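Milestone M4 deliverable, item 7.
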Amino acid sequence: MNTDIIIHPKLQHYGLTTGNVDAMVEWYRKVLGMTINQRSVVPAGAPHGPPFSAFAFISNDETDHRIVFFEVPGVVADPDKRRHTHLQHVAFNYETLDELLGTYLRLKGIGILPLWAADLGVGISFYYQDPDQNVVELNILNYGNDWTATEFLRSSPASAVRPAPVDPEKLVAARQAGASPWELHERALAGEFAPTKTLDPSTHF
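Output delivered:
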């Protein structure tokens, strides 16, 4: 039993309170392929019961749950959350740029569009908002693997990780025209894919 060295456990799941489990489960099903592995209703008036009326455990891989929603009747999104401490965003990583761009097109087809998209140097990220206004990032690394991306962050000046906003449609068009993922990264940093109308991140993050 090790009592001296810090163990590095992996992040397994996170929990969110919501006023509408159904809407949240459906959004995460459409966007990330999450399915319900367990869902229960807490009996009304249960003595010493928890402060929620239902919960749902969902996942999109072999882990029993990646997210658990706790339904609390009457709770609403905080309209002033950017002035309060909160979970700023959660990110999900794709293996390839084509997976990310294909997901963008699929979601666009059902009316789900990103709030903002940018090349962050280490990767390309699209940011979405779920029904409770939590920010969900979908991304890919611009580097070959996690270790290379980590070395990039460790060795780069702050100026190298400042976001370059991008228009996803311009990325898709360039990719379909034959540009490689690395070429898209370089062109994004050069400003070639800048959106016509940009979002001020401070209004949503």
